Amino acid sequence: MSDSIIISGWDVLDASHEALRQAVSGVPAGGWSLPTPCEGWSVAHVLQHAAGDQLGFASALTGEPGPAFNPFEPTGELGGDAQAFLEDALRRSAGAWAGVDRQAAEVPTPVPPHKLAPASGMAACALDAGVHAWDIAMACGGPSPLTPEMARPMLEVARQIVEPLRAWGAYAAALESQPGDDDVTTLLRYLGRDPHWTPAA
User: Fold this and answer.
1) In whole angstroms, how far apart are CA 111 and each of 19, 62, 101, 128?
2) What angle separates helix 183-190 from helix 148-167, to the nearest 10 degrees?
3) What is the Cα 129 distance to its own chain's centre?
4) Interior CA angle at 199 toward 167 and 132, to 5°?
5) Percent of the chain beyond pLDDT 90?
6) C-alpha R_g of the chain
7) What pTM was computed for the model?
8) CA-wise closest residue to 123 among 97, 104, 92
9) What is the pLDDT of residue 1?
């Protein structure tokens, strides 16, 4: 990793940030307009949304300004270096989480219920980065960046926060589980994603 990358010290969050970083670095030339598992959103839309959400978590923790755009209405116009755009958001998010008191009763979050135990808040932030890393990787024909070690805490917090977010359109309805589902596919189905999605599907 580059010396400029800030590590939060939370393993799941750092792994999710790295997954998103690698997914974005794997977008091919001309790939920003590719469709993703997020219906109606291109790779550029998903990146803009994902970066905005990381800024939202950082803002909730530090009180600093959040994204200058609505992450839930991304324009898909990145306006420059996509990797630098993402890296700024990841640095701010990781830096904010690095300063969290892990013994605190709760920390503020930008998602309902707007206050969570530190480990749960971190997992919610990681969930957002990790699932959008998956979206971008799938859109570009890459391998899944999610691991069972990431998926387990993500699923635990997803079951705490996702239902209200479905009403906002942030997540589709959960898909029915299937025999043989592992930790990653269970998480994806809960988030309304087909684990076998492809751009041609």
Assistant:
1) 22, 15, 19, 11
2) 10
3) 2
4) 45
5) 89
6) 16
7) 0.95
8) 97
9) 41
If you count them, how many residues does the chain have? 201
Burial class of residue 25 in the structure, from the number of CB atoms within 10 Å of its CB (0-12 exposed, 13-18 middle, 19+ buried): exposed
Helix (H, G, I), strand (E, B) or coil at 35: strand
pLDDT at 201 (0 to 100): 57
Strand pairing partners for 42?
35
**Would you say domain 11-190 falls under CATH 1.20.120.450?**
yes
**CB of 122 within 8 A of CB of 153?**
no
Structure tokens at 142: 């890459």
- The structural domains of the chain, with segments of one domain joined by +, span 11-190
- The Cβ of residue 80 has, within 10 Å, a number of other Cβ atoms equal to 8
- The answer to whether 162 touches 127, Cβ cutoff 8 Å, is no
Residue 130, amino acid: G
C-alpha span between 63 and 108 (Å, rounded): 10
Asked if the bond preceding 145 is cis, omega within 30° of 0, the reply is: no
